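quick one before i forget lol
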Amino acid sequence: MSKRITAIVFLMTISIVLVSFQQSFTVNKSKSIERGKTVYETYCQSCHMEDGNGMEAVFPPLAKSPNLADKNRLLKIIVQGMRGPIKVNNVNYDGEMPGTVLTDEQAADVANYIRNSWGNKAETILPSQVQPALKATVKGYQKY
């Protein structure tokens, strides 16, 4: 009987901890986006513009961009940079974007800001997902 009670208490404790973690990040998603806006203004805005529309044929737009769906690709571009041709909203771009030295939290925050601004909607990226994303193989990605 005491083993059963111990097992039930253990499972309930684990459940409460997991739900608490999920709720705390959900509550903090808006904070992540806020912090990401600051990172964006510092490192990205000069090329991709305040409204995320970039400069046609020079700097690709981030607003309403289908290229943001692949979180691994986006994180690689943010952190490691990118070179070579890319097509965004039927416009060809062929330039280079240097990587940016960011913490995992900053990279996740700016990705969350970009993926949830200017008409974009996407799932939240956690800081713990950044390093695995940087190691992932991504089709069509050429490191800077």
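fyi The domain at 30-135 is CATH 1.10.760.10 (Cytochrome Bc1 Complex; Chain D, domain 2).
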